[in-house]
Structure formats: structure tokens, C-alpha cells
Amino acid sequence: MTGEFPILLLALCEPAKALGLSGVIARLKAEIPHARMTLATTREAAALYQDDDLIDEIQAFDGALFKLKSLHGLSELSRRQWGLCVDIGPTLISRMMKAKTRFTLNPNDSAGVLEQIAVRLKLDPLEIMPTLRVSPRREAQVRSLIDNGRETAPLIAMAPGAGWLGRRWPTERFAVLATRLMREEGPFANHRLLIIGSEAERDTLQALRLATSRAQVMEISGEATGLNAYAALKQAVLFVGNDELWLHLAAAAGIPAFGLFGPSDEAEGPIGNNVLTIRGPRSFADIQTADPKLKLNVCHMLDLTIDHVAAVIEREMAR
């Protein structure tokens, strides 16, 4: 169409990082109404954007970028003329693209995706905070799944899983924390507990459910994993979880989100006035000294106590 301004967004990275583009997309569309948005990302991250009507085209790549099928798709994108190319991978692939204006994330900059893009666009990072767009149909389906069509008690959400033992706070501590927060004299009396996680985390989710009264497991699987979780989290009043995708989704959902950190860098965590990170007495640098490659199969979260986590949550929520 005459007058279209083609924008290519390259997010060939993990979903939590790709999520950082969601607010940028909305801002660019508001600033350039005739923009035509193309998002090239991983198949897992693409699922986060499947309800987004601001994106005109999604190219999803599965597995290694240098497979024949992926190369064919990237080659097709390189033959187009782009008004703007934004690469948050970052990858060398953006150099293949013919663009009038180009922005590539600097991996050596301590600032994250939002901070770097905000500087380039001369914006406050809070103006481009992540926020996913969810269809009314999906919202209704998720609400029905949680409430079974009935008005029920409000929710607090927890995600006890983690892809690596090192950054997984013990499940039994999540159980004690939930009981403490939800007891009769606690700050969340008469609330329900929504436990969120992937199919791969099933054992961890069930262990927390069995140890906690008034708990409901929402085991999210399939290609819409992240988007369904996001729709569910928007209905909660609080989230507590490890440094995983679920924390980033809760931050984007706009609810108070408490991230439990150990062998993770807060600089790479979600930002926003609704996000607070909690860690034990050791800094990320301290833990990295003991485990330089962050690969040891040991839990680095044992010095983060239940009392400390509960005290921070109770203090912040009282505000």
C-alpha cells in the first residue's frame, strides 16, 4: 500500500527478552499510524504475540537459525526495503537487512532492552513498558478456566518452577510463604492461590498444590503457554516467583510482582514501578564468584529466607 512505513523487529532471543518489544510496538504504531510491522522471532516468543493486532506479519523461526528453512525466510526478509530495523537479539542478521534506519542492541551495555531503546527514541523507559495484547475470547476462556463461571475469591499467583536448580527457591518454602500470607490473620486471608507453570514443571506445581490449602494449579502448556499465563496473571492481585518468564509476564500484566533472585542479574530483570526483586545476603557477583559459569547443579537460593521474603511482601503491600 502506498505510504506504508515498513518496520522490521528482530527478536531472535528467549521469550522473556522478546517480551520487551511489546511496549515499543505500541509506541511506534501510535507515532507512525501507517507503519507496517513485521516481527521475526523464535516460535516460542511468537506465541506471545499471536493476539496482537498491531503486528501485520510474524515470521517464526524454530531451532537453529542456519537451517535451510530459516535461511530461506531470512533471505526473503533481506530482499525487502525497511524504513526501520530494530534488532534486540542482537544478531549479525540485521546487517543483512536493507534499512534506512537501524538500531541494534549493544550486548556490552549494562542497560537492558527498554533502556537502550528509550535512549534512542528519546523516551522514558516507563513509556514503553511491556504490555501484551490479548483477545477478548482468550480472556473469557482463561477466566472461565480459573473461575468455572462463578464469582470466586481473589487470587494471589505463584510460579515455583525454574529451568535450572540454581535459581529455584525451594518449593516447600513457597508452600510456607503461601500459608503465611493467606492465613486468617494474614494480609491475603480469604484469597485463593493460583500456581502457574509449564508442563515440564508439573512435579513442582503439584508439590506446592498438595502442600497448600485453597490452591489451584494452572498448568499451562501448548503454543499459547505464555499468553494464557499473562491473561491469568492479569486477574491476580499479587505474584511471587523465581527469575523466569512468568515474572516478566506478571510485570507486564501490571500487578505487584515480587521476583526471587539469586544467580540472576537484576539489570536483566523486568523494570517498572510494580516490580520488586528480593534476594538473600549475597549479591549476584558473590554467587558468580562461587559459580563462574552459573552451571553448578546446586541451589543458590538457600540463603533467601521465608521470613525475609514475607516481610518484604507484607511491607510493600501495606503501602
How does this model look, in words?
This protein has 319 residues and is α/β, with parallel strands linked by helices. The chain folds into 2 domains: 124 residues, Rossmann fold (3-Layer(aba) Sandwich), CATH 3.40.50; 183 residues, Rossmann fold (3-Layer(aba) Sandwich), CATH 3.40.50.2000. Helices cover 34% and strands 22% of the residues. The protein is built from 12 helices and 11 strands. Strands 8-7-6-9-10-11 form a 6-stranded parallel β-sheet, with helices on both faces. Strands 3-2-1-4-5 form a 5-stranded parallel β-sheet, with helices on both faces. Strand 2, helix 3 and strand 3 form a beta-alpha-beta unit. Helix 7 packs parallel to helix 12 and helix 9 packs across helix 10. It starts with a strand and ends with a helix. The model has no long low-confidence stretch (mean pLDDT 89).
Features:
319 residues; Rossmann fold; 6-stranded parallel β-sheet; 5-stranded parallel β-sheet; 12 helices; 34% helix; globular
Provide a concise account of the structure shown.
The protein is of the alpha/beta class and 319 residues long. It has helices at residues 15-18, 22-31, 43-46, 68-78, 113-121, 136-147, 171-182, 202-211, 225-233, 245-253, 284-290, 306-318; strands spanning 5-11, 35-42, 57-61, 81-87, 98-104, 155-159, 192-198, 215-220, 236-242, 257-261, 275-279. Helices cover 34% and strands 22% of the residues.
CATH class of the largest domain: Alpha Beta
- Spell the H/E element sequence: EHHEHEHEEHHEHEHEHEHEEHH
| Terminus-to-terminus distance | 51 Å
By CATH, the topology of the largest domain is Rossmann fold
Unreliable spans: none
The proportion of residues forming helix, as a percent range, comes to: 25-40%
Morphology: globular
Integer count of domains = 2
| Name of the CATH architecture of the largest domain | 3-Layer(aba) Sandwich
Number of helices: 12
